[in-house]
Specification:
This protein has about 350 residues and is α/β, with parallel strands linked by helices. Helix content is about 40%, strand content about 15%. The strands form two sheets. It has a ten-stranded mixed β-sheet with strand order 2-1-3-12-11-4-5-10-8-9, with helices on both faces. β11 and β12 form a beta hairpin. α1 packs parallel to α12 and α10 runs antiparallel to α11. The radius of gyration is 20 Å and the shape is globular. Bound molecules: 3-isopropylmalic acid and manganese (II) ion. The site of 3-isopropylmalic acid has 7 residues, from α4.
């Protein structure tokens, strides 16, 4: 098949990990006789430097035309001045909104060979298989924002409509049908009106999925349960900010934030794929970042945007095999251990393919 894939390497370790994901996509194309056109475009802090815009119009136009977009990471200390008018993160938020990507899928890959490395007791990790479904274009990230001129007061508003909650709830419920038919919906209904609407809307949609068991959890208690008994959960449905926070917390289960992939989807096949981790400015440019989150994001791209399920599974199997062989990037090595570089990890996955 032919596919037009836009690469947005971004900032910090973004270019390093995206190069490895692109290596894997190229290998998949060569092996399967596919034709993937991979084009890189500026976005994030680097685009602020060069174009005074974190999401230049030409980048946005290319993304709109693409079958899929693969992003590295955005942001860094250079662009973190609290008074700055342009922020790299705004480019990412605008891109998600412009492409209508309201559902963010964040599976938590728990590889058996990494269990000893996770800070939790290994027996807690047994049978853990989680999929976060995070609402991505609403909630407090996208409510009307105001900042008072003199800087003494600032506020953000948390708004959800039933339509916004229902469409992402359907994504979670459908996903649960292909798994163990359980959805844990996260809210703060004891305090926030918007979260009471969240709970009511999820309950209403769930009525059409009688075969899926839906439970409701307050976010604070759930944050604790998630570490105490992660194997109790399957699909976890959450609003934009709670989903952001809980999915980073869940990285503890995978051993490293560098392991987590994500897919952001709308109503069609087009999607934006990115590792959950940030730009990690402290290790950028040293060739030591973990590319697995980016590589597994490429696998999600193959599955969700290109419908190449077998190829996607092959990439995931190759990653598991490389980890079974004992290869580890620095984030997964305890002091004194031997670590491989970003591109050694990428090449090893490619070789397994
Ligand atoms: C993420 C990131 C982003 C978010 C930032 C970079 C805007 O933390 O994708 O999880 O908060 O959504
Ligand atoms: Mn985040």
């Amino acid at each position: 098949m032919q596919a037009n894939i836009v690469l947005l390497p971004g900032d910090g370790i973004g270019p390093e990990v995206t190069a490895e994901a692109a290596r894997i996509l190229t290998a998949v194309a060569d092996l399967g006789g596919h034709e993937f056109q991979l084009d890189s475009h500026p976005m994030g802090g680097n685009a602020i430097d060069d174009f005074q815009n974190p999401l230049p119009p030409t980048t946005l136009a290319s993304c709109k035309e693409a079958d899929a977009v693969l992003l590295g990471a955005v942001g860094g200390p250079k662009w973190s001045d609290p008074t700055a008018e342009l922020r790299p993160e705004q480019g990412l938020l605008d891109l998600r909104a412009e492409l209508g990507l309201f559902a963010n899928l964040r599976p938590v890959p728990v590889f058996e060979s990494l269990a000893p490395f996770a800070p939790l007791k290994p027996e807690l990790l047994r049978g853990v298989d989680l999929l976060f479904v995070r609402e991505l274009t609403g909630g407090i990230y996208f409510g009307p924002r105001h900042e008072q001129g003199d800087g003494d007061v600032a506020y953000d508003t948390l708004v959800y409509s039933t339509a916004e909650v229902e469409r992402v709830a359907r994504v979670a419920l459908r996903a649960a049908r292909g798994r163990s038919r359980k959805v844990a919906s996260i809210d703060k209904a004891n305090v926030l009106a918007s979260m009471r609407l969240w709970r009511r809307s999820v309950t209403e949609v769930a009525g059409a999925y009688p075969d899926v068991e839906v439970t409701h959890h307050l976010v604070d208690a759930f944050a604790m349960q998630l570490m105490r008994s992660p194997a109790d959960y399957d699909v976890i449905l959450a609003g934009n900010m709670f989903g952001d926070i809980l999915s980073d917390e869940a990285a503890i289960l995978a051993g490293s934030l560098g392991m987590l992939p994500s897919a952001s989807l709308g109503s069609g096949k087009q999607g934006l794929y990115e590792p959950v981790h940030g730009s990690a400015p402290d290790i950028a440019g040293r060739g030591i970042a973990n590319p697995i989150g980016a590589i597994l994001s490429a696998a999600m791209l193959l599955r969700h945007s290109l419908e190449l399920d077998a190829e996607a599974s092959n990439v995931e199997t190759a990653v598991a095999a490389v980890l079974d062989d004992g290869l580890r990037t620095a984030d997964l090595v305890s002091e004194g251990g031997q670590a491989v570089s970003t591109d050694e990890m990428g090449r090893a996955v490619e070789a397994k393919l």
